[in-house]
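Changelog-linked ticket: S-adenosylmethionine example.
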Amino acid sequence: MGFQTGSLGLTGGADRLLRDLIHERTGLFFDNGKGDILTDKLSPLVVERGFTSLLDYYYLLKYDEAAQGEWLNVMNALSVPETYFWREMDQVRALVEWVVPRWFEQPGAGPLKIWSAACATGEEPLTIALALDEAGWLGRAPIEIYGSDASTAAVEKARRGVYRERSFRNLPAHLRARYFTQEGATKTWRVDAKLHAAIEWRVANLLNEAEVAPLAAAQVIFCRNVFIYFSDQTIGRTVRSFAAHIRPPGYLFVAAAESLLKLTTEFELQEVGNAFVYVRQPGAG
Ligand SMILES: C[S@@+](CC[C@H](N)C(=O)[O-])C[C@H]1O[C@@H](n2cnc3c(N)ncnc32)[C@H](O)[C@@H]1O
């Protein structure tokens, strides 16, 4: 490795400072057992910047106003953009078969806004758009779909709309044939233009209130498979900022493995269709 973690006599100290700063700004928590993983992921960035210690890199991120761009590199280095089409479909079905019809049967219902927060390379919001199209909603009702992630690399891929085999592991073959076109003789597939155009892509960090506020002003938020990387503290912070901006009826979908029961009073767990969803409680929190 091209630098020492224990410079200036702070053996182990710089790792901890950096770990805590990253936790505070990104939500991602590398507990004691995972310190080495963090150092390994960041060391190429430290070397690229020409630093010889983690502590110098910490100072750059913490105090240098011009370090905003560096935070994007940090996010790209730490992002785990593991995702695929048709993942945990009970929740998407609950959205399409239950939430959407109830919304539009209200007299004078305005547009329905759906935000896929931490969408990685876009498979989740595209799955939502695809399922809405199959049910005849897309283009017929005013539905706005936003997909965002803190990783600029992931969002760039989402904007390109081209996918490899591993993204299709769960998508039924007839839907793949209907909505994707193979790119020449390559092993890549381009998503249907209508689905792709149904989504607005953004870069947004869930711990950045200014970036979250406009997106979270939605009736439905999907935030799945990201809280597994957060601490209880940063999950709580994120959920509170969702609660502050989400619009009635305020549905928050998290992955089945991510319980918020001990972390929020603003949302209550309810069964909708065949899925569980956290619903904003008016007046709570
Ligand atoms: C495992 S993927 C989940 C993708 C999709 N939601 C799904 O369930 O298939 C986790 C994503 O969370 C993103 N992420 C991590 N920390 C984030 C943060 N603070 N703000 C926004 N996105 C973040 C990562 O960049 C990564 O793309």
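Closing comment: Example verified and attached. The longest strand covers residues 143-149. Confidence is low (pLDDT under 50) at residues 4-11.
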